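Collaborator request, handled under Task 6.
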Amino acid sequence: MVKIRLKRLGAKKRPYYRVVVMDARCPRDGKAIEEIGTYHPVEAEDKQVNVDIARAKYWMGVGAQPTPTVKQLINRQIAKTGNVSE
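C-alpha cells returned to the collaborator:
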C-alpha cells in the first residue's frame, strides 16, 4: 500500500519534514517514491506548509492514503491558497 506521509529531516529539536509518497512498509526516513512538499513546524505560520496539491490529488486518485497529519496539512494548504480545483 502506498501512503502519503512525513519524512523527518533537520537537527535535534529543529524538525523539518518533507511530504513524501512512500510504500507503507518502508522506514520513516527511507527512500521515497516522490517528494510533493515540505512542512517546517518551527517557521512562521504562513511559511510552514508547502504542498503540491495537484500531485497530492493525483496520488490520492491512484490509491495512495494520506496519514491524518498529512491530510490536515493538505487541507491547510488548500485553505491558504484557495486551490480546490487543481
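The cover message to the collaborator said: "The chain has a mean pLDDT of 90. The beta strands are 2-11, 14-23, 34-39, 49-51, 65-66. Please let us know whether this matches your experimental observations."
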